[in-house]
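Quick one, tokens below:
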């Protein structure tokens, strides 16, 4: 009998539903945020036992809350446990997006409990999506020289996964809403839990909402810790809002630090947090406040929308804001897996890319920041642009008044920059003819007059925001 034994790998326990192993470390289990491009930025997804903070300082938009709705919808779609910390948790889930062309039967609700209805709407929706996809493929087909047809198409983001049996990342449609039967089924199966952060008793004159929420979350995680087959997602859509009481920066720091310590004790849970716009700015916590929030969480990004800056909206018309990364998750490694495996960040090729996001009619996309075709023009024009028409009219009118300066707006009623054209007429003095003794003036020949005036053109460029232009 041989003394050698075949070395076999130890049998690993099955992973929870909707999770997979991190490509950077086999000891890390990750789950999807519901947005494929955001998963790529995080290094494949959000690791379990980690917290993710989304800052949205623009008060005119709600992109941070939209990311959390993706996070909650992905949890319900793949059968995970979702805990919403908000006083209106029911309405928060009711506003979440859902998968296109799907009914509530795919989420665990029995067919007998559903009313008999034909599947015509879903078929019509699928047909419309197929036609849109076919039309987009027809539009994006290269119609230039044949030698360029085999070239790789320029892409600015990662492709969306196909709608298949894989539960890791589903494809959601912003025009669809989550069915009420899905929420009721999740509540009946105890996969939908809610925590009310309403201010209760005070401790030392300070509101105790943060301590109450941490205590309640600890009780929930301890009760479900025995069930290893389901991961738990904690969604906090408005940390520090009026429902939490009058919080100070120390309360926010205490809550984030306590939440991260709680997630380390229960490795099958993860959390996603969003804060109101006024708490995402340096004015609330002082200098270095945003960086401090990144230290207290495992992952932190800022979605800086263009809503309060019209000049940026005009410059980057195809995007809705910048994406700033403050921290990336690395629970079991020294370096974040995103540094090596992220396609959008581009660290493996040549430096780090600038990132932006845009919210389309059906989805939210994170992509690399780029200019549109033709130097910023995103659509083909069949008629001259407004600025070109204004320039032609100003030049034509300027021939009649050569000495009057004209200011031509470069775009719209609220111009950021202006071009000032001034025509100056220079008189050149005549050169006196040299007279000799033999030369006499001919009676019928006129004297040579002054030369024709030469027109000089002066162009001045002025701007209300000189920091936008670099010559």
């Amino acid at each position: 009998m041989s003394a050698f034994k075949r070395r076999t790998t130890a049998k690993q326990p099955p992973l929870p539903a909707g999770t997979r192993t991190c490509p950077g470390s086999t000891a890390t289990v990750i789950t999807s945020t519901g947005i494929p491009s955001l998963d790529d930025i995080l290094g494949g997804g959000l690791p379990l036992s980690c917290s993710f903070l989304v800052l949205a300082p623009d008060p005119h938009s709600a992109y941070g809350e939209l990311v959390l709705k993706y996070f909650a919808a992905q949890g319900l779609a793949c059968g995970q446990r979702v805990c919403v910390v908000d006083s209106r948790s029911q309405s928060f889930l009711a506003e979440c997006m859902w998968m296109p062309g799907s009914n509530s039967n795919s989420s665990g609700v029995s067919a007998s409990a559903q009313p008999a209805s034909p599947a015509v709407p879903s078929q019509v929706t699928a047909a419309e999506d197929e036609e849109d996809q076919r039309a987009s493929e027809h539009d994006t087909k290269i119609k230039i020289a044949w030698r360029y047809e085999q070239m790789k198409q320029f892409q600015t983001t990662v492709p969306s996964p196909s709608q298949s049996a894989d539960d890791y990342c589903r494809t959601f449609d912003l025009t669809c809403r989550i069915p009420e039967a899905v929420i009721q089924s999740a509540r009946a199966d105890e996969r939908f839990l809610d925590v009310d952060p309403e201010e209760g008793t005070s401790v030392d004159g300070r509101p105790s909402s943060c301590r109450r929420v941490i205590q309640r979350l600890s009780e929930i995680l301890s009760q479900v810790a025995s069930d290893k087959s389901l991961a738990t997602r904690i969604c906090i859509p408005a940390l520090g809002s009026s429902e939490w009481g009058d919080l100070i920066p120390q309360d926010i720091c205490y809550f984030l630090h306590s939440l991260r310590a709680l997630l380390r004790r229960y490795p099958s849970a993860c959390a996603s947090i969003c804060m109101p716009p006024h708490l995402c700015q340096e004015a609330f916590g002082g200098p270095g406040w945003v960086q401090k929030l990144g230290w207290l969480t495992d992952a932190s990004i800022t979605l800086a929308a263009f809503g309060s800056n019209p000049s940026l909206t005009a410059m980057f018309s195809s995007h809705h804001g910048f994406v700033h990364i403050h921290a990336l998750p690395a629970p079991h490694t020294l370096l974040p897996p995103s540094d090596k495996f992220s396609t959008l960040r581009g660290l493996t090729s040549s430096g780090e890319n600038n990132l932006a996001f845009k919210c389309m009619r059906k989805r939210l996309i994170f992509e690399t920041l780029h200019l549109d075709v033709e130097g910023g023009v995103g659509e083909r024009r069949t008629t001259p642009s407004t600025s070109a028409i204004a320039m032609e009219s100003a030049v034509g009118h300027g021939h009649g008044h050569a000495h009057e300066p004209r200011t031509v707006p470069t775009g719209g009623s609220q111009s950021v920059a202006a071009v000032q054209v001034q025509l100056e007429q220079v008189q050149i003095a005549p050169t006196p003819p040299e007279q000799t003794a033999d030369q006499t003036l001919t009676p019928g020949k006129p004297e040579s007059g002054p030369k024709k005036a030469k027109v000089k053109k002066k162009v001045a460029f002025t701007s209300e925001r000189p920091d936008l232009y670099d010559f």
